[in-house]
């Protein structure tokens, strides 16, 4: 079984549409800036990957995550040649923090907020007439989980078309928690480098239109060949390489592909000590003996960790890479960790290659793992 991705939408610190984001990634442009969302004097970390949309006064505003979500969904529907008032298309939203930042601004500054505003479904119904929307808070694997659920909905005959989306803005409570628990203070997110110091948060929203085979009105960006997910609940923050390996192998099985048939891997690459080590160990094990092995990259080195939407942002990047044969580099990777020895990590500059298939990794706290496999589409 397979499913077509016919529409793309994205907003991030490095671009306000999918192509702009991809071009920035290929050019090695980072969205890292000094912290603007709140008073950085309270925290050790002073940088983040924020979207600059606060207006001339620089003041933070509520419902930014919701507005980005609306933008990304509209981009994706338009790209797929669909009516943006299509009320019969379900929308599945993956997120980590929902509108927590808006609640902070309401509590601290008295910013206007209603209970209705806290549900993405309200905004989607107002903007697009969406009759069915579902929000999933599966940590940083949320949007690949929702992708798997979308393919299930299509196979079960519940819909021919599903929008899968994700959105998150930086919240002070989450930023402050990371700032306290990370042993070191990162100045940038540097996946798989020995000098990595931890995670820095990013902002953004992303959306894709997933359709049953044969119903696309436009060309197909990429084909979803398989999605695997699991949750081992082994540890709150330490990933298990064994369970990650299982998810990768299961995704390959569902896609009907062997390890040596994967051309590109979009790594989760959160820049933390434990995650990078576990992911590199798992990936190295899966691809051991698989010929020269795939090219690998990690876009969080330029977007920061965009939380719930990060997996889908990697997926959109993979769709463009398959189409154009250009893979963005891992920015800031100068001295790869020992566990990544032998992996073909793209460094220094974008790499060109003939690509047909891609694997996308997304992992979250609590052992929540999701892996998707894509095949190149026919979009010109």
What does this structure look like?
With 380 residues, the chain is α/β, with parallel strands linked by helices. The protein has helices spanning 18-27, 64-79, 100-109, 120-128, 142-155, 172-181, 241-255, 273-287, 300-303, 310-324; strands at 3-12, 33-34, 47-48, 91-94, 133-136, 161-168, 204-211, 222-231, 264-266, 295-297, 326-327, 344-345, 351-352, 357-364, 368-376. Strands 5-4-6-7-1-8-15-14-9-10-12 form an eleven-stranded mixed β-sheet, with helices on both faces. Helix 1 crosses helix 10, helix 2 (64-79) crosses helix 4 and helix 7 crosses helix 8. The longest helix has 16 residues, at 64-79. 56% of the residues are buried. The mean pLDDT is 96.
Low-confidence stretches: none
Which structural class do you get from the secondary structure elements?
alpha/beta
N→C terminal distance: 23 Å
Give me the number of helical elements: 10
Give the strand content: 15-25%
Q: Give the strand order, joined by hyphens, for the main sheet.
A: 5-4-6-7-1-8-15-14-9-10-12
Largest sheet: 11 strands, mixed
E-strand count: 15
Rg over CA atoms: 19 Å
- SSE ordering: EHEEHEHHEHEHEEHEHEHHEEEEE
Average pLDDT for all residues: 96
Layout of strands and helices, then pairs:
Blueprint: E1 3-12, H1 18-27, E2 33-34, E3 47-48, H2 64-79, E4 91-94, H3 100-109, H4 120-128, E5 133-136, H5 142-155, E6 161-168, H6 172-181, E7 204-211, E8 222-231, H7 241-255, E9 264-266, H8 273-287, E10 295-297, H9 300-303, H10 310-324, E11 326-327, E12 344-345, E13 351-352, E14 357-364, E15 368-376
Parallel strand pairs: 4-5, 4-6, 9-10, 9-14, 10-12
Antiparallel strand pairs: 1-7, 1-8, 2-3, 6-7, 8-15, 11-13, 14-15
Helix pairs in contact: 1-10, 2-4, 7-8
